[in-house]
Specification:
The structure is a homodimer of 543-residue chains.
Chain A lengths: L2 H6 L7 H11 L5 E4 L5 E5 L5 E5 L3 H7 L1 H4 L2 E6 L3 H10 L4 H13 L5 E6 L3 H20 L13 H26 L6 E5 L6 H8 L4 E5 L7 H4 L4 H12 L3 E4 L2 H14 L4 E3 L4 E4 L2 E7 L6 H8 L2 H16 L4 E9 L5 H14 L3 H4 E9 L5 H18 L9 E5 L3 H10 L2 E4 L8 H9 L3 E5 L5 H4 L4 E3 L4 H12 L3 H17 L2 H16 L23
Parallel strand pairs in A: 1-4, 1-6, 4-5, 6-7, 7-8, 8-11, 12-13, 12-15, 13-14, 15-16, 16-17
Antiparallel strand pairs in A: 2-3, 9-10, 10-11
Chain lengths: 543, 543
């Protein structure tokens, strides 16, 4: 443990509160019901017919499976492919395969009282839900990825996919939730993300007594962005969400945007933006920010693991060959919203202004390929490669200013962050961005962060903040980060790390359950507006 | 006068109120000061050296030059080109050319006490202001025309253009305003549009007593869209506008977006969204919507003029050759924000579903070319032509479903609107859109209107409303419009026309001066939120 961690040493957040809230919510015999599009495990069979299970990555699964240690959990999801559907059928069958699968689940998720219910969805409905509505449409709208004068085109195919895909999947998931809610005194349901905007309405219709919280993992943009949806769709989405007791977003800005959306699109809703709630059809709906986070201890331990140490040694050797330059690091998927393009252009501008940095700095991008089948993504990746080629020219690999490494190697990503002098996280739009929080835990780097990353609300005061489109300001901040005195840098790292440790993944979960427990007692959920991001940092320009 | 106009017959809005407000504001010897980027006249010289003046088109000039009949007006603007600069120098010279130019101004703008002050701007500053900041950047940001993951790139060139172009022009215009304000008891200043966001701050610094209203002709998008600007720029813009007494926007939605922007970007501002004002540094700034309009009587008279009648006869003859089909009309510049592309695709979808309409309907687009030098615009125009070619195939011109005619011919545009059965106005983003209001005055057509046209706030209840991206819904509304029973259609036209007659160009101006007069007496400006657009019309989809 280094001295920064030593200074941050404090009482680990214990699971006691979480257990208390769960007990208050579930009573003696209740089971918490979690529903998400993708379940915590995906199943496959070897050629020999043997079942295998792979645990999903990402905060959602990491956070929610831990609940199974503290309380009985039933997790409803869609069966994602043929193997999932077969596993789902076998789990319901009562034969030998069922036992084998239950063993597998216990092995993958040990010590948990977790029941999985993967609902089979007809292939066509699934494709409409996932391949037409959720990913190429809602995800794009909410990440502002459309060029509005060309896209999207809301046509009969989309409307049809909404009615016979998105709606159907939401109904099937809600149906499963209702089955599990049967016999429960007051069922408690945690709905996840943009695939399930309509599920709460179906649940509420049958169980007015249910306690339902929907947490949305992706951004909620301003009213302007939602105007590309036909009235009927955007109202259905808002009204679907208003069937919850609590709507949770990643940031206060998204919560504000959600409140404005309800004000604009739901005729009979009364919105109280300061009180952060909506009155609608005799019910009160609370709107709260629950910024998702990471597990700092687990990550810190992983960063000291032999696998990561090996990668660090390799990187150190390469840096030595290059004359021990300073290291700027970015870690992300190569996709338009992450903004690698402007990041590299900013670096290029900095090198033009300060050519001597070509020797003394390397920009290491650990990037994984993302959706290469989407033409938008492929075109974007080509534009990024073009800038990299322009900057690197014919230099030999170690002397080239930009190093591109494979981001599917998580060991390498953590090793790179650990060795960084500067970490650049500059998404155009990003629900939260956990790399910024990982960097705070494993590195001693100055963090250059765009304000449109959800993480900015938490980290703005100790990161160097930029506007994502501002290549000029990004170049300036990279320079400032590279030249930051060590004591200032370490002071910032210390405060960033303390903040991430305070607001970790368990905190994210605890606040949701605390708020639900308050609602169940007819009280106002205690979580309120967290902080005010955009005004928090000073301009980089003189007026 | 047809029977619809006869029913609408009412007291013409008289100029009495306007004159009263002007008298109250200006006292005995004051002159109203108007400042805009472009002045009401642009000057040129024939080869023989003779001076000519051309009156600007558009609502701004039309509206504001009328002020000169009611009160003494001084109009400050930038000299747009070499001839303007020469005219500007000559006007200040006191020689024979000065007299010739003054005669020219009196001839073009008769019966007015109007003094023009065109300020010369150094060519480089002008190019930076106009060619880098205002048009390719601010106009694009405010019309949401950027593909966010590629554009804009805020680089040193833009920052430099801001500091040494935009700022300079604003200072020069403010300086001119201050010169004219000298000796005035309490100068009254009307600032126009997005070229002059900073001018009020310069004026206020010297004349804390000035009454200043800034009216913005283009949209004010949500906070999300402004995040592409560096902090310093967006704060400077908001603070510049807060130096006014009243900030006027085209619609309530833009006014709301402006209030949210101030809340997000100006650290020490207290925003009261319901009271529609801001408290900042000891002053109160009122935010109001003044939807710009047209002159219905003048337009109705023009629509009966011989030039327009000739065009109507030509069109009628062509329609007869085509077998007297029904007529859908659109009139606009061929540019991305106007959304011709989705309009034609919607028409194509309708023809696929109802092939018999190929015989009985024509879609006449009166379109003018816009900025063909901008590659975005050229690419968009090519995409539009491709759809038109696909729909028309090899049909002979009169039998082709889509007719493209030259939109630079205003006689033709008004003739086409006059003969239309359906008028389609479906911009993705549009500050106001006066074609929708012109159609209400000259045609008996059903109006299909997108909610993202500023005019939607006024016209939503009697137009057929669509979401601009919703090709499916647009096709449906075109069909409904074509088949609308005559009595329903005429009822809608009657109400649309009455609304446009009530809220005409003089009403636009009167409300601004009434509000300024209230502020001058220390009262709250009486104009409040006008109406609630987006919730006003029913969904086209069953939830």
């Amino acid at each position: 443990m280094d001295e920064i961690d030593a200074r941050n040493q404090r009482q680990q957040p214990d699971a006691g509160h979480l257990r208390d809230y769960l007990a208050a919510l579930l009573g003696n015999d209740g089971r918490l019901i979690v529903a998400s599009n993708r379940g915590p495990l995906s199943f496959s069979r070897t050629k020999a017919g043997e079942w295998q299970a792979k645990r999903g990555s990402g905060g959602l699964v990491t956070a929610l499976v831990e609940l199974g240690r503290l309380a009985p959990v039933t997790w409803v999801s869609a069966a994602m492919d043929r193997d999932d559907r077969a596993a789902s059928a076998a789990l319901a069958s009562g034969n030998g395969t069922q036992r084998a699968l239950l063993d597998l689940i216990r092995r993958e998720l040990p010590g948990q009282d977790l029941r999985l219910d993967m609902r089979p969805i007809a292939g066509e409905a699934w494709q409409r839900h996932y391949g037409i509505v959720s990913n190429p449409f809602l995800w794009f709208v909410q990440h502002q990825l459309f060029t509005l004068h060309y896209e999207p085109t809301v046509d009969d195919r989309l409307i049809n996919a909404w009615q016979h895909g998105y709606r159907v999947v939401n109904e099937l998931i809600a149906e499963a939730v209702l089955e599990h809610a049967q016999g429960q005194r007051r069922p408690v349901v945690l709905l996840q993300d943009y695939h399930l905007y309509l599920a709460a309405a179906n649940i509420r219709a049958e169980r007015p007594d249910a306690l339902i919280l929907h947490f949305n993992h992706i951004p909620w943009p301003a009213v302007d962005s939602w105007l590309v949806l036909p009235q009927g769709l955007r109202r259905a989405i808002c009204e679907g969400l208003l069937a919850n007791d609590i709507v949770g977003l990643q940031t206060d800005r998204y919560a504000t945007n959600f409140l404005h959306s309800v004000e604009a699109f739901v005729r009979d809703a009364e919105v109280d933006p300061d009180g952060r709630h909506v009155r609608w059809r005799g019910r009160t709906i609370w709107v709260r920010a629950y910024p998702i986070s990471i597990e700092p201890d687990a990550l810190a331990a992983f960063a000291r693991s032999p696998a990561v140490e090996r990668r660090k040694a390799e990187l150190r050797a390469r840096l030595e060959r290059a004359g021990n330059p300073k290291l700027i690091v970015r870690v992300d998927r190569l996709e338009p919203s992450k903004n690698a393009l402007r990041g590299f252009i900013a670096f290029e501008n900095l090198l033009k202004r300060r050519p001597e940095l070509r020797k003394s700095v390397r920009f290491l991008a650990v990037q994984s390929v993302s959706r290469p089948d989407l033409s938008d993504y492929a075109k974007y990746a080509a534009a990024v490669r073009e800038v990299v080629a322009r900057v690197n020219g014919m230099a030999d690999p170690d002397q080239a200013p930009i190093w591109l490494l494979d981001g599917s190697d998580y060991d390498l990503a953590i090793a790179a962050l650990s060795l960084a002098d500067v970490v650049l996280v500059n998404p155009v739009v990003d629900g939260m961005n956990l790399v910024a929080k990982e960097a705070a835990v494993v590195s001693r780097a100055a963090l250059v962060l765009s304000e449109t990353a959800g993480a900015a609300e938490q980290l703005a005061s100790d990161a160097l903040m930029v506007s994502a489109a501002d290549v000029s300001g990004t170049a300036e901040m990279l320079e400032r980060a590279l030249e930051m005195p060590a004591d200032e840098r370490l002071g910032r790292v210390r405060r960033l790390r303390a903040s991430v440790r305070d607001e970790d993944l368990q905190w994210w979960l605890t606040r949701q359950l605390r708020d639900l427990a308050a609602v169940s007692r007819g009280r106002r959920p205690p979580s309120r507006a967290l902080r005010d991001t955009i005004r928090k940092f000073e301009p980089t320009l003189p007026g």
